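The methods section describes the discrete structure representation at length, but only in general terms. What matters is that the chain and its backbone geometry are given together, residue for residue. Nothing conveys this as quickly as seeing an actual entry. For illustration, here is how one protein appears when written out as sequence plus structure tokens:
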Amino acid sequence: MELDALVLARAQFAFTIAFHIVFPVFSIGLASYLAVLEALWLKTGRELYLDLFKYWLKIFAVAFGMGVVSGLVMSYQFGTNWSVFSDKTGPILGPLMAYEVMSAFFLEAGFLGVMLFGLKRVGKKLHFIATLAVAFGTFASAFWILSVNSWMQTPQGFSINDVGQFVPENWFEIIFNPSFPYRLVHMLIAAYLTTALVVGAVGAWHLIRDRSNMGARKMFAMATGMILVAAPIQILAGDMHGINTLEHQPAKIMAMEGHFESHPDGAPLILFGWPDQEAGKVLGAIEIPKASSLILKHDLNAPLAGLDTIPRADWPKVAIVFWSFRIMVGLGMAMLLLGLWALTARLRKRLYEAPVLHRFAVLMGPMGFVAVLAGWVTTEAGRQPWTVYGLLRTADSAAPLAAPAVATSLAAFAIVYFAVFGAGVFYILRLMASPPHRGESDMTYGPTRTAGITPAAGLDPNRTLEPLETPDHDR
């Protein structure tokens, strides 16, 4: 593939969005988890929940900050590499992005300081309201961003003026376009699953080292419970999302399924193989007869059209979509396995004495991020060769820039991103490597000590920290 300006611009956007998306996904789930922990503390009065809240609050602050900074680069690229796209879609996407800033970012920024520093200054109830506001802000941000992306996938509610711009006709139809509800649910559950996997991995890591740590026990129990509930729901949501995509973006489903040819009497489910786009077939296919028709149309004999019904110029890169989809689905099945395994251990009263389960949970810790990235690749690569599906081609959306200029900015982004965000991720991992303790210190307790750790009020800073509560209090 020739490295022209268009390919480099797409590579730059893919690189920056891959770094960016992991932080908002984690922030959405972690903000809700923090709200749950604070609510449990207020309801039960157990210091265990407050200490876990403070433990994860530090991690949330770093992840949230990196998400904000990495997101700023997106708007920069819209104005440089994709200025034609911005000009043509600006009347619709501009206001939606502005709504995200006004309703979500301002809400998060306004209450984040209270959430981080205000527990002893504003009181418990007002602080809890601030935590809820931040959690709601992360949801609102996801709402508007997914509305923007979904409109690009299934555009409606617009007209095209004399200069080729998309102009709004019906804002309700634009915001609540056909694929938006499915994408919103799918992404939010993905955020909660991703966060639960991270929390569960951290709890499992510390259980391997000290199974009597009550904070680790509670983390692991809550996380695996969430995975057990969310994973089946996500599978169901994904199935509904796939049926919606088949209706509105059939070429994407054809690429995901590897269906180069039409199947009038029921299409097979191709489990593995190598899609050969030039030959128009999947090499070495391992398949289940008629299972794809059963999944997509709930009928073994339902006909399914293939890519042979679509002009080759409108085909996505099938191999990319085919394999990214299988990575996402395979990891989803592994998440369900983790939830069921933890349920079995819980029923046998061995949830905290199952080292093999704990090691599997640690291994699954980053897999939520991998699944999210694989899903995002499926969504975006499957939409190609369009930026606005069926209406505006990617090749017609790029700015008239020379390849060396785009290559230079791509190289600069790569250097800065790996340095800055690599350091941020390393710091988050250092925070996670420290086990939760009673009297967990954090930013809610005023000035820092010289060692960078502030003891909770009433605790001797020189004494040895103890595990959260005692084993007989674990509930």
Observations:
- Residues 35 and 379 are 30 Å apart (CA to CA).
- The longest helix spans residues 5-44.
- The first strand starts at residue 158 and ends at 160.
